[in-house]
Amino acid sequence: MFAYDFMRYAFLASTFIAITTGVVGVFVVARNLSFLAHTLSEIGFAGAAFAVFLGISPLWGMLLFTLLGSVGVGGLSLRTTQKESSISAISALFIGLGILFLSISSSSSRYATSILFGSIIGVDLSGVTRLVILSVVVLFIIAIFYRGLKFTSFDYLGAQAHRLKTNMLSVIFLIVLAMSVSVGSQIVGSMLVFILLTLPASTAKFLGKTVPQMIAWSVGLALAGVWGGLLLGYLTNLPVTFFISAIEVIFYLIVYVYHLKHN
Fold first, then answer.
1. What is the 3-state secondary structure (H, E, C) of the chain?
2. Which of 34, 61, 210, 247 is the least crowded, having the fewest Cβ atoms under 10 Å away?
3. How many domains is the chain built from?
C-alpha cells in the first residue's frame, strides 16, 4: 500500500489533519460551538468554490472565507437573540454562493465532489506541504495560548474573574477554528469536516478526566478514524469519507452506551 506515492501523501496529510482537528475539537465541544463548526464548513464550501472560479487552490479560498466568516458569525452569535435563525440564514446564503460559483466556473463537476466530500487520495506533495504548514501554525497558536484557551473554554466565569482577556482569546480561537475547518475539509470535505471537529472530542469527553487526557483521547480517536478510513478505502475502493464517518460514529456510540450503563 505504501509503495504508492499517493497513499504515503494521504497518510501524512491525514495524520496532521487528525492531530489538528482532534486538539481543536476539544475546545469546540467545551465551548458548545459545534453549530459554528458546521456553519464554517458551509462558508468554506463557498470559499473553495470561489477559488475554483478564480482558478486557484480551493484551500486558499476556503481559508479566506472561513477566517472572515468565523469572526462575523462568532460576533453575530453573541449579539443577537435570534442566533440560530441568523446563522441558518447565513449558511443558506453561502451554500447558494458556492453553487453559483461552481456553476459559472469552467471547471468540471469533480471539483464540486472534492470540495463537498474531500479528496485526500488526490493530495500531491505541494498540497501535503500546505496542509502540514497550516496544521503546525494552528498547533503553535494553541500551544502559545493554551492556558488562556483552556481557562475560557472550561471555566469562562472563572477566567473573567481572573481578568483574562476573554474577548481576545475568543477571537483567537475563532481564527484557529477557521483554519482547522479549512485543513480538515481536505480529507472529509466541507460538508463533513464538523465530524472530525466534534465526534472524537465528544467521545473523549467521556474518557478523559483532565483536559490533556481529553486532548490525547480526541487525537487518538481522530487518528484511528482517518487511518482506518484510508485503509478500508484502499482495500474496498469505496469513499474514504464514508469509512471515517462510520468509524467515528461507532466509537462515539460504543463509549456513550457504556457511559450510560455505568453511570
1. CCCCHHHHHHHHHHHHHHHHHHHHHHHHHHCCCHHHHHHHHHHHHHHHHHHHHHCCCHHHHHHHHHHHHHHHHHHHHHHCCCHHHHHHHHHHHHHHHHHHHHHHCCCCCHHHHHHHHCCHHHCCHHHHHHHHHHHHHHHHHHHHCHHHHHHHHHCHHHHHHCCCCHHHHHHHHHHHHHHHHHHHHHHHCCCCHHHHHHHHHHHHHHHCCCHHHHHHHHHHHHHHHHHHHHHHHHHHCCCHHHHHHHHHHHHHHHHHHHHHHHC
2. 210
3. 1
Model pLDDT for residues 24-72, shown as the tens digit of each residue: 999 999 988 888 888 888 888 888 888 888 888 788 888 888 888 877 7
Cell digits for 62? 476556503
What CATH number is given to the structural domain containing 116?
1.10.3470.10
Is the Cβ–Cβ distance between 31 and 153 less than 8 Å?
yes
Model confidence pLDDT, tens digit, residues 2-31: 777 778 888 888 899 999 999 999 999 998
Sole residue written with cell 462568532: 74
Residues with Cβ within 8 Å of 221's Cβ and at least 6 positions away in sequence, in order, are 22, 199, 200, 203, 204, 248, 251
What cell does 191 get?
460538508
Using alpha carbons, list the distances in angstroms from residue 61 to 115, 193, 230, 232: 11, 16, 26, 30
Q: What pTM was computed for the model?
A: 0.87
**Which residue range is the domain that position 147 belongs to?**
5-261
Whether 40 and 71 have beta carbons less than 8 Å apart is answered as no
